[in-house]
Specification:
single chain; Rossmann fold; glyoxalase III activity; stress response; seven-stranded mixed β-sheet; 8 helices; two-stranded antiparallel ribbon; signal; hydrolase; alpha/beta
Length: 254
């Protein structure tokens, strides 16, 4: 009887391990790419990524079973825009992040962007903040990665300032955004935060200069645009909308 019970336990354990492995194999995997840039131009102030634009999409996807890895140009701890930690910027997702020691530990050990491969993921998502305007917008590794995702029929998603990373991305010799419907942090929103003359370029203008069909709604209102594999959101309030559209695309790909 003892031997039978032992065999039953072994069989059950093996079955559970196999089921877990199969479940993981079927799970979608998304790469998050964050900025490594911390200086807000010549102001002497700090910048980085915006917590809401990271936390809201992260939890929206992770809570639905999506596996998420995080990368940045330099690897390690990416800089957080201090203004996004202010109580006035708090949301339910940022409050959850503030208590999430496991995610904070994961965030402190981001992969180097040069070490990640498109083939390992089903989609890529770029949170915003002003930091990407200085590093990821001109990062050749980032541009090549986005092109690789796109040409391999995988969704590419961006929110707020992060559509800036599309500035130099080309597919078949043309800007990826050319003729595409997009949105992103608007000129009026940049003016409202007093950084029009600080940022290296205005996102709205840059997207239009590359041939995109740019649209927006009222400042700080949730708004996301989907054009095929390309998903963009206007501002921090649009973060979850972008994640929802991304999740729908992931679920539609079996």
């Amino acid at each position: 009887m003892k031997k039978i019970a032992l065999f039953a336990i072994i069989a059950l354990t093996a079955s559970c391990i196999t089921a877990t492995a199969q479940n993981k194999k079927g799970m979608k995997k998304v790469l998050f790419v964050l900025t490594s840039h911390s200086e807000l131009g010549n102001t002497g102030e700090k910048t980085g990524f915006w917590i809401e634009e990271f936390a809201a999409p992260y939890y929206e996807l992770a809570d639905k079973g999506v596996i998420i890895d995080i990368a940045s140009p330099l690897g390690g701890q990416p800089p957080i825009d201090p203004k996004s930690s202010d109580p006035s910027s708090a949301t339910e997702d940022t409050k959850r992040f503030d208590k999430d020691t496991e995610l904070q530990a994961k965030l402190s050990k981001t992969h180097k962007l040069a070490d990640v491969k498109q083939a390992d993921y089903d989609a890529v998502f770029y949170p915003g903040g002003h930091g990407p305007l200085w590093d990821l917008a001109t990062d050749a590794t980032s541009s090549a990665l986005i092109e690789s995702f796109y040409t391999n029929n995988k969704p590419v998603a961006f929110v707020c300032h992060s559509p800036a990373v599309l500035k130099n991305v080309k597919v078949n010799g043309e800007f990826l955004v050319k003729g595409k419907k997009v949105t992103g942090f608007s000129n009026t929103e940049e003016e409202a935060v007093g950084l029009t003359n600080v940022v290296p370029f205005l996102l709205e203008d840059a997207l239009q200069a590359n041939g995109a069909t740019y649209s927006k709604i009222g400042d700080w209102q949730p708004y996301a645009v989907e054009d095929g594999l390309l998903i963009t959101g206007q501002n921090p309030a649009s973060s979850k909308l972008v994640a929802e559209k991304l999740l729908n695309q992931l679920n539609s790909k079996k």
